[in-house]
Amino acid sequence: MIDLQLLRENPEIVRASQRARGESEDLVDEALAADKARREAIGVFEKLRAEQNAFGKTVASAPKDQKAALVAQVQELAASVKVADQAAKDADAELTRVAGSIQNIIIDGVPEGGEDDYRVLREVGTPPEFDFEPLDHVDLGENLKLFDLQRGVKVSGARFYYLTGMGMRLELALMNLALDQALAEGFTPLITPTLVRPEIMAGTGFLGAHADEIYYLPADDLYLTGTSEVALAGMHADEILDISGGPLRYAGWSTCYRREAGSYGKDTKGILRVHQFNKLEMFVYTDPADAEAEHERLVGWQEQMLAKVELPYRVIDTAAGDLGSSAARKFDCEAWVPTQGKYRELTSTSNCTTYQGRRLSTRFRDADGRPQAIATLNGTLATTRWIVAILENHQQADGSVRVPEALRPYLGGIDVIEAP
RNA sequence: GGAGACGUCGCAUAGUCCGGCCUAGUGCACCACCCUGCUAAGGUGGAGGCCCCUUUUGGGGCCCGAGAGUUCGAAUCUCUCCGUCUCCGCCA
């Protein structure tokens, strides 16, 4: 939910944001009208209610024999209160619907446009040059018995897989490397629920345009989360947090489930795009004034991880049209994938400013002690997908894969992955 | 899965049977001030959240788990949902 005060006072800022995203500007005028209508409806209701309350006291203190007459007199008032109450509720629901469909206000400097209009902030490292024909991650993984794709399909269908042997250990090693880094930075580690209630899923902004991306269990009215961000954001719903001692930083580990609807034919091979994977996610609650600085810190931690696994990558500032509805700005770190000859997303970090805080009613007390919507940010620290880039970039002529030094302690000191 | 109990202003509780002096009382904790020669006791006052009107001051509405209903009027009665607890059963 955007800030309604901003909408009233500076609607042109909201319009500009919608325009940059390629979203409807008319929504802004609809929201303004709905806001006005709501306030008028509330005024009418409250005036009537005040009358009724006053009358109620008269009835209560009146002599018994006069009560019947008084009651008869106020019937009509009671009826109009009821009507006004309903009108106010309807107007409020309409405002929530319209204003709720306006996406977060983008931050100045975010490139306008769609998926291909990102800005490259920096490229780090050099793509490897091979004096042999490099294999793709599917061949490498199957040769080295790191995953079993056929049986994944047999048991669960397309885009499912077994991680086997060193593949399974590589994933745990990545997660633990990431976790140890997060712990060193003071994050609180968490394992989060992966099934959540509808209001939590809606509060995080995932039930909008991309609702068909989400697994839903009708028998229990629960959603399977595509990222621990959902449970981490919902964790403090309806709370006023004490961040006087600094931001609350969580590192949440969970399995993630995504339907990948509409991606038929895209990345069908291997484990690049799958229905189920693991992820260690950073999630921060902070003062909105500190959100942009925190966002830079999150990218910094992601880049540290990429450096530890020795991958060449670039950082992009995602264009407005490619942002989720909650994000005001998003940086992606994309690692080089040799056999594709391009960079592919390994991490993503979003600054959601106060958008989720307002939707989920998560607040903090400002310097004056008044509750204000808190800012939230999230960012990937490690996922299953990293295995793809690690295998391809560190493969050797004999078909083995060199293990980056930082990962070796998590793999019992092994420095090369070879066929078992 | 079966049976039952419960959900009140930070915490703990009263109020719910018999709807209206409940604009929810009390204790503890909290804040300010007073008194007090002192990490104590006592006194006075204050204090939450959401929203509407208002330049300030201030005025008003809503919040007793959530929602709906009955009623002139609901913390109190009815229904649905959510949650917690106890006992029984079943199960890794």
Low-pLDDT ranges? none
Q: Roughly how much helix do the residues carry, as a percent range?
A: 40-55%
Instruction: Briefly note the CATH topology name of the largest domain.
Output: BirA Bifunctional Protein, domain 2
CATH class category name of the largest domain:
Alpha Beta
Q: What is the topology, as strand order, of the major beta sheet?
A: 1-11-12-13-16-10-9-4
Classified in CATH, the superfamily of the largest domain is Bira Bifunctional Protein, Domain 2
Series of H and E elements: HHHHEHEHEHEEHEEHEEEHEEEHEEEHEE
Please indicate the percent range of residues in DSSP E strands (runs of 2 or more). Answer: 15-25%
Q: Give the CA-CA distance, first to last residue.
A: 53 Å
Sum up the overall morphology in one term: elongated
Structural domains: how many: 2
Q: What does the radius of gyration come to?
A: 27 Å
CATH architecture of the largest domain: 2-Layer Sandwich
Average predicted confidence as pLDDT:
91
Structural class category: alpha+beta
Oligomer: single chain
